[in-house]
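Methods — Computational structure assignment.
A single polypeptide chain was analysed. Its primary sequence is given first, followed by the predicted tertiary structure written as structure tokens.
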Amino acid sequence: MNNVKNVFSIKDLENLSGIKAHTIRIWEKRYNILQPMRTDTNIRLYDLVSLQKLLNITLLHDYGYKISKIATYPQEKIPSLVREIISSKTAKSHAISEFKMAMMNFDQELFFNTYNWLIAEKSFKEVFHQVFIPLMNELGLLWQSDTITPAHEHFISYLIKQKLLVNTEKLQVLKQTKVDKVFVLSLPMNEIHELGLMYLNYEILLHGYKTIYLGESMPIENLKDLKKHFDSIIFVSYLTVQPERCQLDGYIQKMSDELVDDTTELWYIGRMIEFIKEEELSDRITLFSSITELVDWI
């Protein structure tokens, strides 16, 4: 398999497993749980098999197994114990670990098998909140630390988007039950991180409202056209990396000038909102610190 990345540093293992590099070294020295490769300068390197083993050991450790005991098990017993634990279908951490392995291996089959295992017992909303949101939060940190490449992030994000689209379509064919307002969802110019906005579209539809999903890189002047068609609009925008911090206040002001009146509101969510001067906003503009907070406000 032509992977983008299949050899990892001990720091990569720390980022992917949540186990500190110092602890991994101790586990290796005392219990021989992993056998790293070594460079000519004696730097530890690990393969995907080692990563999978460490993720499994981490799950067992989280469920009360002592490392000294795990170290005595034959190689094949560790995956067997993991399967026993997850048979209850409550092991969220296992699902996240499996999705990480699917991502690192570019393994669609593992992604779908893990998803199908989850959805057999949970609603899509539960899967998204309990597994996908924590997973995507972790992936953001992994990408920032160079543990994963953009190819990894795009691969797993696209598969999650597929599931979002399938479940969103099921709601779009239903008759809306609330008609007092319409939600228009869009992203600023050059903002391509669409997953969070797509999920909000799903949630708003689930609440019975009509949505107009416009997606990425939507000019403000085009949003203004929607006011010709609907009387009461909430414009929702997810600000992950755009606009840049130096342009943020100007962007918010322009949206306010162009869109806000007695019949419209602006809702913002995403990483960039921490840089918005909330005390300067009108009462028609609302900031949300999380998807859960926004959904509770609907």
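Note: The chain has a mean pLDDT of 89.
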